[in-house]
Amino acid sequence: MIKKTPLYNWHKSAKANLAQFGGYKMPLWYPEGVKKEHMAVITKAGIFDTSHMAVITLKGAQAFDLLQKTFTKNLSECSNFQKEPLKNGQCVYGIFLNEKGETIDDSVVYRFEKNQFMIVVNAGMGALISKHLKKNSNGFDCKIEDLTDKIGKIDIQGINSAKILLPLLNNGDKVFENLKYFTFKGSFLPESSVVLKDGSSILLSRTGYTGEFGFEIFMQSENLVKVWEMLIEAGKDFELTPCGLAARDSLRAGAMLPLSHQDIGGWKFINNPWIFALPYNKEKTGFTKDFIGKKALSDIQIKEYTYPFAGYNLRKVPSSSDVYDHNKEKIGTVLTCATDMATDRKEDKIFCITSNEKTVPKGLSCGFVKVCKKLNYGDKVILSDNKRKIKAEIVKDIRPSRTARINIKGLL
Amino acid sequence: MKEINELILPDNLLYAEDHEWVKREGENATIGISDYAQDRLGDVVFVELPEIGDVFNKGDEFGSIESVKAVSDLYMPIGGEIVEINESLADAPENANNSPYEEGWMIKVKISDSAQLKALMDKDTYIKQLEG
Questions:
Q1: How much is the average pLDDT of B80-87?
Q2: For residue range B21-50, what is the model confidence (pLDDT) as tens digits?
Q3: How far is A22 from A5, CA to CA, in rounded Å?
Q4: B32 contacts B96 by C-beta, under 8 angstroms
Q5: pLDDT band (50, 70, 90) for residue A250
Q6: DSSP per residue over A314-366, as a string?
Q7: In this complex, do A246 and B42 lie within 8 Å of one another by their Cβ atoms?
Q8: Which residues of A touch B (CB under 8 A)?
Q9: Assigned fold of A54-146
Q10: A160-202: per-residue pLDDT in tens?
Q11: Contact residues on chain A for B43, CB-CB shorter than 8 A
Q12: What is the CATH code of the structural domain delimited by A8-50+150-252?
């Protein structure tokens, strides 16, 4: 059965192009088009219905132990450069692996209190991750609850997001105080410390999937349409644009964020741009805790590498195209190839529309390749589906000048 | 997403299963993609076209069209020799979205076998196909 979010009728009446994703009928783009949506998030603000994502809560004296066992981040020392434990009101990105060290799904884990956590996973993954957690919590004092159908989520992303949200919040200035990247306030329960002017409780999280400044807003499903419409109304003065999954995909690719089951998946989670999610020690010689998948990832023979790439113009190849090195030897596969319409190259250097260059960017293809040999930043590869060929460069980063970590104070 | 009754589908064109349109002009024909195709593709960012003089059979791939989201192939609804290509699409690929039947045309061909036109659909048959 195909599921619909509470905003389905809104998307339909807005004439969105709808398609199935993760078991849900979701908007791909609205009539103004992907390009405008992508640009809006980078220069103004965009709003996304992300209610298809799954939410699981963990409660109990051993909730922490269960996460230490199943989640790659070491929650005892992950919250910042000081290697302190994850605190109340902080969240962290990591992976759920199987014993083979392969990705089941990626996730953001939120700590409400010492014995109370929330896990956000991808669309359709709530049941699978719940099952995995239950299987691994035999005898643990930990209650696992899949709240996916009860909780809705709206992402508002882009530098105007704070200005749009502020007048809708009770004590907005106080809510925004110290709301740093990867921290959150409130909850979707009635006693939330973050409440909108109409009385709706929200969990306000300074996170997202675009690489740009913004929030993910969790709430009870029944409030979703009301809150969405409030945001759309409040966003009218700030060029807030409704955005679909296509813009979400091109934005995240440019921001070097993986799409689960495409860029990470049924192969070992190692030698990739996201190994900061693994609990490495300072010397990167071993891991600081035991976790499912550790043994498989400790094998030093793994010869599979995932790298970000950027093309030289906006031309793309389909996913699963082949990757060739400069000797024309086939070395791997394209995982993601998207166009970041806000970027381009000037004298080979990548810039973004917000980089203060005089030139208007025409767009660059970008994404990730998985190859069987070690490459260096700056190496050139050819991506080809046997019909078209594009030249690409292995890069350390894709879209520059991203705003995700910017201080909220400067945006009000 | 446009409902089928909102699509612009001119009466004087023929339509192919792969959503190309054909307009006969004497011994030549102009070819592009339908309003339905552009609506489903989303923002077109690049159109790759063949060279003048290239000869294709019906069903051959003559180029490709890239939207922000995907890369799609373009197929010959009839066979023929390319006599003209729409060079303005190189600078303004968005014309394939904004004006699929006018500024967004793609190629002109010299028809190799006019009997192949009979296998194409008129507007009403094409609408029936879209309605599935």
A1: 98
A2: 999 999 999 999 999 999 999 999 999 999
A3: 12
A4: yes
A5: very high
A6: S----TT-EEE-TT--EEEEEEEEEEETTEEEETTEEEETTS--SSPP--EEE
A7: yes
A8: 15-18, 28-29, 33-35, 38, 246-247, 249-250, 314-318, 338-339, 341, 363, 385, 387-388
A9: Alpha-Beta Plaits (3.30.70)
A10: 999 999 999 999 999 999 999 999 999 999 999 999 999 999 9
A11: 29, 33-35
A12: 3.30.1360.120
For the domain made up of B12-110, the CATH class stated in words is mainly beta
Q: Give the model's pLDDT for residue A369.
A: 98
* Contact state of B64 with A28 under an 8 Å Cβ cutoff: no
- CA A107 from chain centre, in angstroms, equals 8
Q: What pLDDT sits at residue A294?
A: 97
Whole-number Å distance between alpha carbons of B126 and B3? 14
Q: Which residue of A has its CA nearest to B3?
A: A15
Q: Which two tokens stand for residue A356?
A: 């203060």
- Structure tokens, A123: 């669309």
Q: Which of A35-44, A363-372, B69-78 has the lowest mean pLDDT?
A: B69-78
Would you list the domain boundaries of chain A? 8-50+150-252, 54-146, 303-400
CATH number of A303-400: 2.40.30.110
Most distant CA atoms of chain A, gap in Å: 63
Chain A residues inside the 8 Å CB shell of B61 = 387
Six-digit token string for A142: 């930990």
